[in-house]
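User: I'm putting together a teaching handout on how multi-component assemblies are represented. Below are the sequence lines for each component of a complex, exactly as they appear in our records. Could you produce the 3D structure of the whole assembly as structure tokens, so the students can see both representations side by side? Please keep the chain order the same as the input.
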Amino acid sequence: MSDKKVILSGIQPSGALTLGSYLGAIKNWVKLSDEYDCYYMIVDMHAITSRQEASVLRKTPFEQLAQYIACGLDPEKNTLFIQSHVPAHAQLAWVLNCYTMFGELSRMTQFKDKSGKNVNNINAGLFTYPALQAADILLYQADLVPVGADQKQHIELTRDIAVRFNGIYGDVFKLPEPYIPTVGARIMDLQAPTNKMSKSEINDGGCILMMDKPEDIKRLFKRAVTDSETCVRYDVDNKPGISNLMQIYSVCTGKGFEEIEKEFDGKGYGDFKLRVGEAVVELLQPIREEATKLLADKAYLENIFKNGAEKASYVANKTLRKVYKKVGFIEKT
Ligand code: ATP
Ligand code: LTN
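Assistant: Of course. Below is the structure of the complete assembly, with chains in the same order as your input.
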């Protein structure tokens, strides 16, 4: 194993990747991938906490992997794998469930959010979701977890669980830090800019998918909700639509908010929305083309999953063995 610091992160195959998944998470995965020893997962076990169509779940991970690679994650340098291919995730999750408090899980915003939206399927997996996420992270002794702002609370809980466990058994787990972008950590729905853009709740016209066609992307930006002023100015509370578009434009172009305000000074929202749409097309078009090519070679993708699971299992099992020993489980002979 290398002595580089370790990164781990994951995305659920609960739908097609969005501009939010890219700007909030994958962009940083790529940025950090040379410097760190990286594990990037497709968390299918987390995805089934909401009902998934099996025939779709059989395809989405391949699409997601093709997009990870097209974004710039080299499968030779990064360990790319499917969560359910590494049984240690489920095994450690069970143990950690026993070191995670009901009260802690009850306070998780994602649980409150998702259970509120889906009252007919408030299953136990949705409730204990953060214990599985903690297992994902702690198995690899990750230093850093690059995620969007919505996941900060889960990383904090992971640290609390690790501290509790280490307090009883000694230094078993490394304490991970979240790594959240300064701009783009919470991309909002284009039609409802006070809601997070989300792949499992596709609001009509509010969500940009990474594989959307250029003409569709431009059309959706043209229709994006703004406000009754005509001034491009950053003000999240009073101008959530414009502020969201400014965030998107800022991460796509590297320009700061003041520079953007100047660029569109005296111009209408129409011009601004057009430019944001074009900037997003410039960003996503090459990714879409590359992902489409990669997706045609299923055997290549399957092989990446196979190698990824092997590498990941090796590291994960080391931590799991240590945990089993510490809690007093008898070693299988
Ligand atoms: P779902 O709707 O299925 O719950 P999601 O669209 O919220 O999913 P996740 O799989 O939960 O996406 O998240 C993948 C990663 O992308 C996480 O690190 C998350 O914080 C980040 N992310 C997701 N949506 C956004 C967004 N709108 N803005 C910034 N980051 C985001
Ligand atoms: N809960 C995360 C996905 C996720 C994850 C992880 C992120 C599952 N396991 C481990 C970082 C590290 C989400 O984005 N909803």
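A couple of points students might notice: The pocket of L-tryptophanamide (ligand 2) is lined by residues 8-10, 12, 43, 46, 133, 136-137, 145, 147, 151, 154 (CB under 6 Å). The first strand starts at residue 6 and ends at 11.
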